[in-house]
C-alpha cells in the first residue's frame, strides 16, 4: 500500500492555482463556442456586458480594468465592435484626450440576446467545479 505523503503547502497552493487556470481556460472555450452563434467571442461579450452593466459610456482605461485585456488588445476589439455597429466612440467631455465607448442600440440588443447564453455557460461550468 503506497504511503501517503502530505503535500507541502507551496505545492498545494501551486496545484490550486493550476486548477483555477484550467477552469478559466475550459470556461473561456465554452463561452467562445456558445457565443459564436451570436457572432461573438467571450472577450467581445465581456466588453458589451461591462457597457450594458453601467448603462453609460466608459473610458477605454475603465473597460480594460474590468475585462483584463491590455489597452492595445482592447482598442483593437473595440474597433472591431465599432465596425460591426455594436459600440460607438466619442470624445470624453472632461478630458479631450480621452475616448468614451458606449453601446449602440444594435449592441444593446445583441447583448440582451446573448446574455442568457453566457450566464448559462457560467452557471454550468462554475457549478460543475464546486
Report on the structure:
The chain has 130 residues and is α+β, with helices and mostly antiparallel strands. It has a single domain (9-129), classed as Winged helix-like DNA-binding domain superfamily/Winged helix DNA-binding domain (Arc Repressor Mutant, subunit A). The chain is 66% helix and 13% strand. The chain contains 5 helices and 3 strands. The chain is globular, with a radius of gyration of 19 Å. It starts with 8 loop residues before the first helix and ends with a helix. The mean pLDDT is 89.
Helices, strands, pairings?
Blueprint: H1 9-35, H2 42-54, E1 58-59, H3 60-67, H4 71-83, E2 87-92, E3 95-103, H5 105-129
Antiparallel strand pairs: 1-3, 2-3
Helix pairs in contact: 1-5, 2-5
Domain HTH marR-type: 13-130
Keywords: DNA-binding, Transcription, Transcription regulation
Protein name: MarR-family transcriptional regulator
* Gross geometry: globular
- Return the CATH architecture: Orthogonal Bundle
Structural class: alpha+beta
CATH homologous superfamily caption: Winged helix-like DNA-binding domain superfamily/Winged helix DNA-binding domain
For this structure, what is the CATH class?
A: Mainly Alpha
Task: Determine the number of helices (DSSP H or I, runs of at least 4 residues).
Answer: 5
Low-confidence stretches: none
Which range does the strand content fall in? 5-15%
Query: Helicity, in percent?
Result: 55-70%
Strand order of the largest sheet: 1-3-2
- How far is the first residue's CA from the last residue's CA? 30 Å
Return the average pLDDT rounded to an integer. 89
Order of helices and strands: HHEHHEEH
Rg, please?
Answer: 19 Å
Question: CATH topology, anyone?
Answer: Arc Repressor Mutant, subunit A
Total strand count, please? 3
| Biggest pleated-sheet summary | 3 strands, antiparallel
What's the domain count? 1
Amino acid at each position: 500500500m503506497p504511503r501517503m505523503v502530505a503535500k507541502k503547502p507551496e505545492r498545494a497552493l501551486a496545484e490550486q492555482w493550476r486548477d483555477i487556470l484550467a477552469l478559466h481556460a475550459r470556461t473561456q472555450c465554452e463561452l467562445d463556442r456558445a457565443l459564436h452563434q451570436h457572432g461573438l467571442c467571450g472577450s467581445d461579450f465581456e466588453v458589451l456586458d461591462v457597457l450594458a452593466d453601467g448603462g453609460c459610456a466608459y473610458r477605454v482605461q475603465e473597460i480594460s480594468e474590468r475585462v483584463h485585456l491590455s489597452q492595445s488588445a482592447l482598442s483593437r476589439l473595440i474597433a472591431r465592435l465599432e465596425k460591426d455597429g455594436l459600440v460607438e466612440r466619442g470624445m470624453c467631455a472632461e478630458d479631450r484626450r480621452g475616448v468614451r465607448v458606449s453601446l449602440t442600440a444594435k449592441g444593446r440588443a445583441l447583448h440582451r440576446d446573448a446574455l442568457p447564453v453566457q450566464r448559462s455557460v457560467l452557471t454550468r461550468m462554475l457549478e460543475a467545479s464546486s
